[in-house]
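Deliverable D5.2: sample structural annotation.
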Amino acid sequence: MKNRMSQGTSLAGVERLIGMAASLTVGEMLTVQAARTPAAVAVEGEGQALTYAQFNARVNRLAHVLTSLGVRHGERVAILSENRSEFLEAAFACAKLGSILCALNWRLADPELEHCIKLTAPMAALVSPRFASNLGRAGHGAETIGENIVEFGADYEGRLEKAPDTEPACRVRPEDGLYILYTSGTTGLPKGALISHRAEIARMQVNTMDMGLKSGDTFLAWPPMFHMASLDQATHLLCSGGRVIVMEGFDAERVCAIAAERPLWWLALLPGMVDVMIEEARRRNFKPLDILQVGAMADLVPLHQIAEVTRLLDAPYINSFGSTETGLPPLSAAKLPIGEIPASLSKRPSSMCAFRLVDPADNDVPDGAPGELAFRGPTLFSGYWNAPETNEKDFRGGWFHLGDMFIRNGNGSYDFVDRVKYMIKSGGESIFPAEIERVLLSDPRVDDAVVVRRQDDKWGEVPVAFIASKDDSLTAEDLSKRCRSELAGYKQPKEFRFVAFDDLPRSTTGKIQRHEVEKWLKE
């Protein structure tokens, strides 16, 4: 008995060692790249270029600074900043400590921002001078932060200068949390999606398999880094020996200047930016050096714009359908040909994932029938932070239910039908109507309200509010003012329409039928 127990303990110990030897995490991948190509440029922007050796040294210094503030394995670190190289330093410093970077959306109104901070209870916060006052107004929601606030600039550089650049001695595991990205929630407040090292590395592998990512590629990180559109891709480039050019927002003139001089792996273009890029490319009679692919979310872009931008940039358009929770999968493998108005926006399955289309009882649906997409794969996130009931529902049966309806075609492609959880996609941002309705219904003069989506050539979709009022004195300006004080700018309804309470179409359970209201916009 004793020998068997000893043998069992020994085997368990060996298995643990094998697991350690077989794993690699995001922070370790940067360390490897710094040793492999120390003189190669890693991050470029704000008039400076950091080599891999320099960038890794700054990351290590920041990791020691965070440790001195009490940040330990599993602790959260909030960041509220525009795009800048320090954002990526924070990402990899947290990666090396096994702590979690909470990427706050600077577009959020103060109450929303306070909710996000309270939700994740960060131990420390990093902030740019531009948003220091925003953090000051909202940060009182997290007593955990206290005085542990580091502002980019003199404060940040002074702390880094005093810290060692040695590698932090922390054991990080693939399933440890890496990032929390905030997504809109059906309850009207953002949810925190926890993304692990395992998921991030798997997403990098999908980029390699489906998007042609290779060592030495260049990515323009202009989308906000609180989005996967920048943070995922920038992480992948720095883990695989590429160069990240940090840009603060979309600047078509600068994009053209850079693309004329160096090859680009993927030029991300979101709804609302495609037409701007077309205008600038036409004005310049622009010819890029070499762009492998452009675009995202083709469903929200006018088809003639897809044809024109691909012709001008001489690159195919990515016909993507992914999410913060899943990365580029499940359906982002298709690309739309150069210079053609697409005859179809049918999707093709991404690599490294499995999925089903299911009915409300989670039974598989046949080809041609709409079903909710249920997902499995290593790119999947690790659930919503501090939301056990939501996680139990969304991960039921061991599949993550996206809340998006598709039809599977006989040729193996998939057509998007609608959202189970009605959501508005505006300029790359996700908006749930409940977020806006919550604010509208807080006005005592509002009897009922419903928000629906309207197609928009610039932004893809925009919110429109229908209001049943109890008081004739209530005006659209009153409601607009309330929304401006409590909601991010991109969530503002583009139109307020007043209707009679009894005219709002309802189901047998009394719920307003959004799709019926949406039809009013076409009348």
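Annotation notes: The chain has 16 helices and 21 strands. The mean pLDDT is 93.
The annotation will be released with the project's public dataset once the embargo ends.
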